[in-house]
Design a protein that fits this description.
alpha/beta, seven-stranded mixed β-sheet, 10 helices, globular
Length: about 300
């Protein structure tokens, strides 16, 4: 199996809900569900790989506070070499709503100062395999070093996967240009339906897939995650699709990140495109429908 690594936003997530938007100011609302867990896009992916018992690397830093120590404990032993910085650990509060939507409140914290040169020793031993970059619009200093990371990965025959997330200011001209520059180095683009349509200006996912493939190097894969509709992808001019199983959802936060974990784990095992999509959708569906979250899949699926 090829080596796996994820580099991006590892932070603390406090998930609560469901709550109907929006409570009257000054009142108190009792909720049925809460979960304090390692989170952020990179954290969610790392938790899924850990839940599957896979070897992986997750270079990261944490703040010098109680949340930083707690976060390191959640991903031990993979956090053994994490860097502690004199800042608050980034905390995100996610409120789930009855209609399946969610609202996030996130403080900046340590993520904005994550530094490639400080994190690089944690991953320097890696050769070959897959490196997922994620949370690109939250890790400003790390993201500025993407050109250096691309060069480093290319020299070690490491394939880059990218799930950048949604830019806070939307897909402006400068953000589109920056994204286009990144895509020249990406072998697996993993984005959701809203991001795909906004980035390409396409009217449907089929057209968006074609446009995205055209932005990538020859032979690279464009993947669009479509929630309960599953996932679709395009590589070499050929489309593939996987349906998502019907499940009773507990909370969908991190579903796309967990899909990434399942998809890339399958790619690392040499699975074909359809099987990789199927593995991703099955893993995400399992996680969002269990509490505490479970990442193992029933043996009958053959997906894990």
């Amino acid at each position: 199996m090829l080596p796996l690594a994820v580099l991006g936003n590892v932070n603390v997530d406090l998930i609560m809900g469901p709550v109907a938007p929006w409570p009257v100011p000054g009142t108190e609302v009792l909720l049925d569900h809460d979960d304090l867990r390692a989170g952020g896009s990179a954290g969610n992916t790392a938790l899924a790989w850990a839940g599957l018992g896979l070897p992986f690397v997750v270079p990261a830093s944490v703040g010098d506070d109680l949340f930083g120590r707690w976060l390191s404990d959640q991903l031990a032993p993979h956090s053994a070499d994490w860097v502690t910085v004199p800042e608050a650990t980034t905390l995100s509060v996610g409120l789930t709503h009855p209609d399946g939507e969610r609202t996030f409140f996130t403080m900046g914290g340590h993520l904005s100062s994550m530094d490639w040169q400080a994190l690089r020793p944690q991953i320097e031993h890696m050769t070959g395999g897959l490196l997922l970059l994620c949370g690109s619009f939250l890790t400003h200093r790390l993201t500025a070093a993407y050109p250096a990371i691309f060069a480093w990965a290319e020299a070690r025959d490491i394939a880059i996967a990218l799930d950048p997330g949604w830019p806070p200011a939307g897909w402006s001209g400068p953000e589109r240009a920056r994204m286009t520059g990144w895509l020249a180095h990406v072998r697996h683009l993993l984005i959701n339906e809203a991001e795909a349509l906004a980035l390409t200006g396409a009217v449907d996912t089929t057209d968006a897939l074609t446009a995205l493939e055209g932005m990538l190097p020859k032979g690279a894969t464009a993947v669009i995650k479509a929630g309960p509709m599953g996932a679709l992808a395009r590589r070499g001019g050929v489309n593939a699709r996987a349906a998502a199983p019907a499940v009773q959802v507990v909370d969908t936060i991190g579903a796309g990140d967990i899909f990434n974990a399942g998809y890339l784990a399958a790619v690392a095992r040499g699975a074909d495109l359809t099987d990789a999509l199927t593995n991703g959708t099955a893993l995400a569906s399992r996680a969002i429908s269990t509490f505490p979250r479970q990442y193992g899949l029933p043996d009958t699926t053959g997906a894990a």
